[in-house]
Description:
The protein is mostly helical. The chain contains ten helices and two strands; from the N terminus they run αββααααααααα. The radius of gyration is 35 Å and the shape is elongated.
Amino acid sequence: MRKVFLLFFTLVFAFGEKSFAGNHFVLFPDTTKKSQVIPENYNDLIKKADDAFANYNWNTAIYYYQQAHQLKPGEKYPMDKIAYCEKVVADSTEMANAANNYRSNLNKGDSCFKTKNWEAAKKYYQQDDFEANADPYPKVMIKFCNDKLAEVPETSAKNHKEEYNYFIKQGDECYTSSDWENALRYYQLAHSVFPNEKYPKDQMGMCESKMGYPRTKQD
Length: 219
């Protein structure tokens, strides 16, 4: 029995800690040691949140302010910042949706205008929207729709030439001022009046190139 104990303790001291291919083997691990991730300091989290806030990374800022709030629920500062960031995100989403809706209505109005559906085109151009109020394009197109609705058939050929020249003039002015989007719209309208004219087709391609659109064959 004594030999057994001696052999046992010899193994303990000789092989109690031994490395196997880089993995540390402990015969009797110390159960008092606890492996845990130390939580981030409140001030560190606030600094990360403030940095994200300063760079307009609202969602990242919200995340770190929320983490800070969990550490100190009674602190007012992170909650105020969270409320501000959430409002900015909501407002940005609303503005993006409004802009998309505005452009969608303009595109629908242009499609109706090209097919000579003046009433429908006018309806799409009449938008109660801040961007519509700031952009002269829909007002110009509403006037054209009204003129078309009141047009006398005998003067239509003359009016078509005037329309074409007007659209080209407006397109050129927008192009010169780097307003590629509205320039493209005016050239497309000129093309719809006289589809065989080369100039508006060429300018449409130039505008699409400036806007980063892939070049497509114009009809």
